[in-house]
Amino acid sequence: MLTGGEAQHRQPRLTEPIILDATATPRVLTILSYVLEKLVSRNDRLSDGGGSAGNILTAFHGVRSPAISLEKYLERIYKYTNCSPACFVVGFVYIDRLVHKYPDSLVVSLNVHRLVVTSVMVASKILDDVHYNNAFYARVGGVSNAELNRLEIELLFLLDFGVCVSSRVFESYCQHLENQSPPPITLISVDDVTDISVEDTHNSSPPQLRA
Amino acid sequence: MAIAAPEQLNVSELPAWGSRSVDCFEKLEQIGEGTYGQVYMAKEIDTGEIVALKKIRMDNEREGFPITAIREIKILKKLHHENVIKLKEIVTSTGPEKDEQPAPDGNKYRGGIYMVFEYMDHDLTGLADRPGMRFSVPQIKCYMRQLLTGLHYCHVNQVLHRDIKGSNLLIDNEGNLKLADFGLARSFSSDHNANLTNRVITLWYRPPELLLGTTKYGPAVDMWSVGCIFAELLNGKPIFPGKDEAEQIHKIYDICGSATEEIWPGVSKLPWYNNFKPTRMVKRRLREHFRHFDRHALDLLDRMLILDPSHRIAAKDALDAEYFWTDPLPCDPKSLPKYEASHEFQTKKKRQQQRQLDENAKRQKLQHQQQQHSRVPPAQQMRPGPNAPAQPQAAGHHYGNKPRGPSGGPGRYPAAAAAAGNPSGSYNNPNRGQGAAAGYGSAPYPPQGRAPPYGSSGLPGAGPRGGPNYPHGGPPYGSSGGGRGSNVVPGNRNQQYWQ
């Protein structure tokens, strides 16, 4: 149990890399992608892969699911933006708050990437005194700057600007993530592609929002 | 997704922020120009209540929603105290307003997002700058006690304000003082282990540990600023008006003594200690320098302006200081005189107009004299002559406050500074196309008018690939544009109100 300050120092924290190496991936990425993948595959089955009518997360929907796996996508965000690992936990808190607030809205393969990049970006704005701007996150996340800005505002309003995460809540989410059965540890290398796209087409035109 | 924090079950909180339109308010007039948007005095149509609407500027596409606004909203959402400004709600405008481009992409928030605050009549700087203004001792005690109470509340809630200065202390006509502008504020953990940016707090109020580059700090940074404000209230003018970081730290050393390992263990390990190494060792002479202050005031100030942050007095202990418990006692806020509302934004604009008229007049006068040998006394001939009294129109904004133009009577500050009154805003607000510190162009104002720069030295710049953002704007110092220019910290005492 992560109960107090001292305990945290003794056992490796979720947000620390598995290997004590600055370039290694923090465990939270692996666990988070595992948790989200599980959620998405369940929800995809429930919703026939699409966003149901009344899904409040429509703005985050693409027409097709992006080809890049969630795990690679999270690694990519971590590698290029150098945000603190805690941002991924807090990003997860935001997504969790959304699905609790709007139970009819499902996180599915069509929207999970955009939800993740937007949540992590907002978390980084909140947590990290030094962080990259939206334009940079847009490039890393493979969406247009304008779309990401729109998604950011969408997220902030959906959350009712409830972007505070107390240390108690933070720790409880860490604990929750820890309790998920960890996926097999694989040695991960982040692809050195510099441009990816989670947009529906590979040209640079802004993606179409579903009505 | 299995777990829900207890708070999340509460979905009945009403009204949802952002659900109401700005059309619920009638804008009365602009009262401020902040770093991330204009501020309007407005009336809620249903209730008639007067509020302040702070528009969030969304025009920097690369930055998205301004971080200062997110921080301010999230922090003010959790702070509820009589000495902290109240954020009432967020409203949006769906349609394009008259000052907007229509939204081509159907973005429903494109029209604008506004923060709705309770309305306050003054800020401390604006009030103190009023011609002939002298605060009484009970009044200063009353303001200081409210400031410390509000700040103590923030610190207990683990929020650092990080931009305490007179212009961020709003005062209403009931004598209540409230902390405002939480755009630089952030939560801190009590272990002080996080790395925080040292590029915060307006230069004149910035503590030595930040000037020396520390990235691990806590509530003591705010207490230094409080000390500066306290001394300024007693002294009548800013005590450390440095024009850049080097001058700032040396002004501090000059009064508080040079920073040495003896008085501040660990100081020599701070990143920029050697950059600002004192050329000669100066002994602390704060008590001599401010010997005209009363004893209890001096005792308290002496514990606020301590170089070593670990020995600086905390807000809670400051509230227990003898100063607040000896005669004359702090007065009841309600007993304070009511002042006519004044907003620096407006008075500044009027002064600017007046000065423009004066300059034109001077120029015309010269030409005129050359041409016509001045048959008529210039002051009468030129409408707003340089010697003419302040123009009536300069007086007339409709709170009816007094003109504060150049000829507006004796100032609290030495003539030049008071009259100069920071005509156009900040020294290094890139939006105004002004350079750093020196930059009033042709205007003959002293370098330290009324606007403490956030700093203008070319300190190490941003990181790779265009650089990560610092909390108050792209290139953290100076005005080199680019990046987050429009979010550059409120560098300006007078421009405030709700930056």
Automatic annotation (TrEMBL), chain A:
SUPFAM superfamilies from the UniProt entry: Cyclin-like
Annotated Gene3D superfamilies: Cyclin-like
InterPro entries: Cyclin-like_sf, Cyclin_PHO80-like
Gene Ontology BP term (one): cell division
Alphabetical keyword list: Cell cycle, Cell division
UniProt xrefs under Pfam families: Cyclin
A GO molecular-function descriptor: protein kinase binding
Similarity comment: family membership: Belongs to the cyclin family. Cyclin U/P subfamily.
Name of this protein: Cyclin
From TrEMBL, chain B:
GO BP term, pick one: positive regulation of transcription elongation by RNA polymerase II
Keyword terms of this UniProt record: ATP-binding, Kinase, Nucleotide-binding, Phosphoprotein, Serine/threonine-protein kinase, Transferase
One GO cellular component term noted in the UniProt record for this chain: cyclin-dependent protein kinase holoenzyme complex
Gene Ontology terms for molecular function: ATP binding; cyclin-dependent protein serine/threonine kinase activity; RNA polymerase II CTD heptapeptide repeat kinase activity
Region (Disordered) residue spans: 336-499
Bias (Basic and acidic residues): 336-347
UniProt keyword Cell inner membrane, yes or no: no
Alphabetical list of SMART domains matching this protein: S_TKc (SM00220)
Listed Low complexity bias regions: 384-396, 412-443
Catalytic reaction list: [DNA-directed RNA polymerase] + ATP = phospho-[DNA-directed RNA polymerase] + ADP + H(+); L-threonyl-[protein] + ATP = O-phospho-L-threonyl-[protein] + ADP + H(+); L-seryl-[protein] + ATP = O-phospho-L-seryl-[protein] + ADP + H(+)
Biased composition (Gly residues): 475-485
Pfam family of the protein (one): Pkinase
InterPro entries: CDK (IPR050108), Kinase-like_dom_sf (IPR011009), Prot_kinase_dom (IPR000719), Protein_kinase_ATP_BS (IPR017441), Ser/Thr_kinase_AS (IPR008271)
Record-annotated Protein kinase domain positions: 25-324
Database matches in PROSITE patterns: PROTEIN_KINASE_ATP (PS00107), PROTEIN_KINASE_DOM (PS50011), PROTEIN_KINASE_ST (PS00108)
Residue sites binding ATP per the record: K54
Subunit structure: Interacts with CYCT1-3.
Family listed: Belongs to the protein kinase superfamily. CMGC Ser/Thr protein kinase family. CDC2/CDKX subfamily.
Annotated protein name in UniProt: Protein kinase domain-containing protein
Organism: Erythranthe guttata
